[in-house]
Write a structure and sequence with these properties.
heterotrimer, A alpha/beta (336), B mainly alpha (333), C alpha/beta (348), A: 336 residues, alpha/beta, Rossmann fold, 4-stranded antiparallel beta sheet, 21% strand, globular, B: mainly alpha, MetI-like fold, two-stranded antiparallel ribbon, 73% helix
């Protein structure tokens, strides 16, 4: 049976405008295209890893999926329903379907609220009484994420970072969503604790069939948890594909550079590896390069002849098909 | 930067216009009737009506306001037909009580207030920031605890209490200082800056005790926070002397909240001056304002209110500009 | 195990004292809840021209160790004990004034987050020039020239122009380059880098690590690289020190640590890391939490989380702190190192 699609994102865009002024109306407004034409889909019970460096738009994309931000353009379809037009009551009901887990579990918990009532908050907000009562359900959730239900009345500061992230996960699970957007959920945690949380997320997915959009900058963690990967650069998805394929034979020169920059915890392999180093910094998203957004740092540019370079600076590359890179010369890149 | 300052100055003018209109309206709606007040005890309805005409209060409200505003741009005539007098530019009207030009009254009282305010400002800034800094450096030690305790006492002492206490101790009991004389107005006067300082020392201290207490607290908190910043560690790691670390790196970064507070307090000084001037019998703006308000002298009260608003708004603009000067992140973004 | 000693790892030829020799370093902080023992006996040495990686998770004492070496805890309420002989001079015993002459001049330091480590209100160039003038008699113009040269050496384009810009006008990678320029402008013989790339993106991290290696090779300084990332250690360091609960639990050459791991904690760290290589079914986390520094266990600090603790007879892991034992340049602090697991009776 074909896995059933739960989330589809089509041409999603978010443009932030700044520099508007009452006293200087003539001054040009600056438009920052934080996300610009992102598309992907996700099946039930599967995980999409969204990777890229800071400023690539991965968090903004996550927030638009959870409708914490309104998209400037494009569609987010959850379980067959387009969320773009949702307002008022419909939006309120939609929130049950998509939940979020944030990076900093301490900052996203109210320090004066007990852990139990933090986990119970979604029930209150949605005016739902689960079978057996709120308290019993919260106890079950706490047990599910590996917390002791008798800690119901404790406060966030009494917990370690890993435990607080478990609270965040329990809270996201409360309404039995179909999709959870995890925004850097383990980045603030130590390696040994990070593994506990990653395992927990995987177990929950096996039990409940929830789909994850897993946003992270740590490519090793993303590889471990994801079924499919989308690599973002300056607001665009430059490459998307199944995890094994993408990691073993990356097509886009940016993906290749990104993977080669990850330090390998294996000294011999590290010494043997051929490194691709990107020059310079990320261009400002307020003023992205024309044509291919990656061309200013692309190692491939040096190997191209003049007419080919022209093409990179004028024509925006589109991925030929699923699993292919948004690069005019991805094929030659794979050869070098 | 220039652009930034121009923008702030434009908003200053707009705000002042708004304040003048609101103040004018408030006085119109108020319960006092200056015409009745000015015609004294043997008042007949006819004489009140005459007084209304003489004071220009027979005209519609907006006309009165525009006439008032015109005084900012040129001289104008005031008074009943046949008995007009010229009010020279800049005209803020004439006192209902003395028929004197309000501009002259202000010009006479302002130097007293400026004398009190400027000295007190310097005194409390130096003392407040200095002690706050010492407390932050000696955090948790005896000096810190003593300074914080002193600040708690200072902030709870109202100006009348400190003022009277100072007067009793230094003037009445021990004759260490003279009672404030109204003959000494400016430091460059014939008596010289020394006697100016001696003359205003007590009012300064009375005001400064109250204000420096909060400066100590703000400076201390801000400095302690700054001292724990990463860049302070970087400064030490360079091998800089502790003095350089504290002053060049710490104070520069930790002083911003003090600048904000200073700007707001300069604006509020007039309020403090009202009390201080009463206690020390100095005929400054505060003193004059109280007398004018009691007598229902609209033009004088109005002028002083606008002046106070002008101080507050200007001080805020100055703070914004100072902020941009201090912090390149404000200036360059 | 007859050859037990407290010797530190990777000694050079006998007789010559190591360039930096740290012995029994301890750091304690008084807190409202009692004394926090952040560092509980760290021993290591490093030679000029070599690179030592210190790895550990949060609370392992790795950053506090670096601050103690830099003398940044002098004048605070922290109590520093033990010895740190830097070219024969004990850094722990030095006064603040004596330490100040070494800081920036002979020992440089790079911090984690370059945005907060740079003063927001001074230009980048002025801050670098200041690091130069502290230790050199120089005119303004000379200091500026030195700083501009240094900015160029760390790969900042248009250094003359960037000199007058403020930290917020720099990108994250450029800021860390500027920090490196500041730390290296007096050509220190020892450079301590405390999580220098943690705040950076991977592609920028790679650039910065390359730069640090290049400059280290050029100047032949000793480099201590503090990190939580075993990947960074594997790529950059010759020798590794693994810290846990404020102690060195394992130390040695990088291949020894990765391929002949002796301490169960190091092994736990390695197996809890996901890798870019083949897909693992499940990660193997280390159960539990690190010990509270306010209330350290009396036995081995890792015993609460150690899968092998129950295999050691007489509850030794719970009651007796293991000593650091060195064999063939590889040190470990464990009653039952992994190479001895095989020698246990097969009854388990």
């Amino acid at each position: 049976m074909e896995p059933q699609e739960i989330l589809r994102v089509e041409d999603l865009a978010k443009h932030f405008t700044s520099g508007r002024s009452l006293l200087a109306p003539g001054r040009a407004r600056r438009v920052v295209k934080a996300v610009d034409g992102v598309s992907f889909s996700l099946a039930r019970g599967r995980t999409l890893g969204l990777v890229g460096e800071s400023g690539c738009g991965k968090s903004t994309t996550g927030r638009m999926i959870a409708r914490l931000l309104d998209p400037t353009a494009g569609r987010v379809v959850v379980d067959g329903q387009d969320t773009a037009g949702l307002r008022g009551k419909d939006l309120y009901h939609f929130r049950r379907k998509v939940q979020m887990v944030f990076q900093d579990p301490f900052a996203s918990l109210n320090p004066r609220q007990t852990i139990g009532s933090a986990i119970a908050a979604p029930f209150e907000a949605q005016r739902i009484t689960p079978a057996g009562g709120v308290k019993r359900r919260v106890g079950e959730l706490m047990e599910r994420v590996g917390l002791k239900p008798e800690h119901y009345n404790r406060f966030p500061h009494e917990f370690s970072g890993g435990q607080r992230q478990r609270v965040g996960i329990a809270r996201a699970l409360a309404l039995e969503p179909s999709v959870i957007v995890c925004d850097e959920p383990v980045s603030a945690l130590d390696v040994s604790v990070q593994a506990q949380v990653v395992n927990l997320l995987e177990e929950i997915q096996e039990d409940t069939g929830v789909a994850y959009v897993f946003i992270a900058h740590d490519l090793s963690v993303v590889r471990h948890i994801s079924d499919e990967i989308a690599v973002m650069y300056l607001g665009k998805v430059v490459e998307r594909g199944p995890v094994e394929e993408l990691y073993s034979s990356p097509q886009h020169p940016y993906t290749r550079a990104l993977l080669s920059a990850v330090p390998i915890p294996d000294p011999r392999a590290a010494r043997a590896q051929v490194k691709i180093r990107l020059r310079g910094d990320l261009p400002s998203p307020a003023n992205p390069p024309s044509g291919c957004v990656f061309r200013t740092r692309c190692p491939l540019m040096a190997t191209l002849a003049e007419p080919e370079r022209e093409r990179c600076s004028h024509e925006v590359p589109e991925p030929a098909s699923f699993g292919r890179a948004a690069c005019h010369f991805a094929d030659s890149a794979a050869l070098t | 930067m220039t652009r930034f300052i121009l923008k702030r100055l434009a908003s200053l003018v707009l705000l002042l216009a708004a304040v003048s209109f609101i103040t004018f309206t408030l006085f119109q709606l108020g319960p006092s009737d200056p015409a009745a007040a000015s015609c004294g005890q043997e008042c007949t309805p006819e004489r009140v009506a005459e007084a209304r005409v003489a004071l220009g209060m027979d005209k519609p409200f907006l006309v009165q306001y525009l006439q008032y505003l015109s005084g900012f741009f040129s001289a104008r005539t005031i008074g009943a037909p046949g008995a007009e007098s010229i009010c020279v530019w800049p005209c803020l009207g004439k006192s209902f009580q003395t028929n004197e030009n309000v501009t002259d009254i202000i010009a006479r009282s302002l130097p007293y207030t400026l004398s009190i305010a400027s000295g007190a400002l310097v005194l409390w800034t130096v003392v407040g920031v200095g002690l706050g800094l010492v407390a932050a450096i000696k955090k948790g030690r005896l000096a810190d605890k003593a300074i914080v305790a002193g600040a708690s006492v200072g902030v709870s002492l109202p100006i009348p209490v400190t003022g009277l206490f100072l007067l009793i101790v230094f003037v009445n009991q021990f004759h260490l200082l003279p009672f404030t004389s109204n003959a000494v107005v400016v430091p460059w006067g014939p008596a010289g800056p020394g006697s100016w300082i001696v003359n205003y020392l007590l009012p300064w201290v009375a005001l400064a005790v109250l204000f420096s207490a909060s400066y100590i607290r703000v400076t201390r908190t801000s400095m302690i926070e700054t001292f724990s910043e990463d860049f302070m560690r970087t400064a030490r790691a360079k091998g800089l002397a502790p003095r350089t670390v504290v002053f060049r790196h710490g104070v520069r970064a930790g002083i911003t909240p003090v600048v904000t507070m200073l700007g707001m307090d300069i604006g509020l000084l007039l309020g403090g001056a009202v009390l201080t001037e009463q206690i020390f019998s100095v005929p400054g703006l505060g003193f004059t304002a109280v007398r004018a308000a009691v007598a229902g002298d609209l033009p004088v009260t109005m002028a002083i209110t606008m002046l106070a608003a002008f101080f507050v708004i200007t001080a805020n603009v100055v703070v914004d500009i100072a902020y941009a000067a201090i912090d390149p992140r404000v200036r360059l973004s | 195990m007859t050859h037990a000693s407290m010797e530190t790892s990777s000694r050079p030829a006998r007789g010559a004292a190591p360039f930096l020799d740290v012995r029994g370093l301890t750091v304690q902080f008084p807190t409202d809840d009692g004394v926090a023992s952040a560092v509980n006996g760290v021993d290591f040495s490093i030679e000029r021209g070599s690179i030592l990686g210190i790895v550990g998770e949060s609370g392992s004492g790795k950053s506090v160790t670096s601050q103690a070496l830099m003398g940044l805890l002098k004048g605070t309420s922290a109590k520093v004990g033990g010895q740190a002989l830097f070219d024969g001079v004990d850094l722990v015993a030095l006064s603040e004034a004596e330490m100040r002459r070494l800081r920036g001049q002979r020992i440089g330091m790079i911090f984690q987050d370059p945005l907060s480590a740079l003063h927001p209100l001074y230009t980048v160039g002025r801050q670098i020039a200041e690091a130069y003038t502290v230790h050199h008699r120089a005119t303004r113009a000379q200091a500026r020239k030195a700083a501009v040269d240094m900015l160029g050496r760390v790969g900042i384009p248009n250094p003359e122009q960037r000199f007058d810009e403020y930290p917020h006008q720099f990108s994250g990678g450029m800021r860390q380059r500027a920090m490196i320029a500041m730390a290296l402008i007096c050509e220190p013989e020892l450079l301590i880098a405390d999580e220098p790339t943690t705040a950076l993106d991977v592609t920028v991290q790679a650039q910065i690590l390359d730069l640090m290696l290049e400059l280290q090779a050029e100047t032949q300084s000793a480099l201590i690289l503090i990190t939580h990332d075993l990947g960074v250690v594997a790529e950059v360091c010759e020798n590794v020190l693994v810290m846990y609960g404020g102690q060195c639990v394992e130390a040695g050459p990088v291949d020894e640590i990765f391929y002949r791991t002796q301490h169960p904690y190091t092994l736990g760290l390695l197996s809890s890391m996901p890798t870019l290589g083949g897909r693992q079914e499940r990660l193997t986390p280390i159960p539990g939490q690190p010990p509270s520094l306010l209330d350290l266990p009396s036995g081995c600090l890792f015993s609460d989380r150690c899968p092998a603790a129950s295999l050691v007879p007489d509850r030794r892991c719970r009651t007796e702190r293991p000593l650091l034992v060195t064999e063939g340049g590889h040190s470990r602090r464990c009653h039952l190192p992994i190479d001895q697991l095989a020698t246990l009776p097969a009854s388990r």
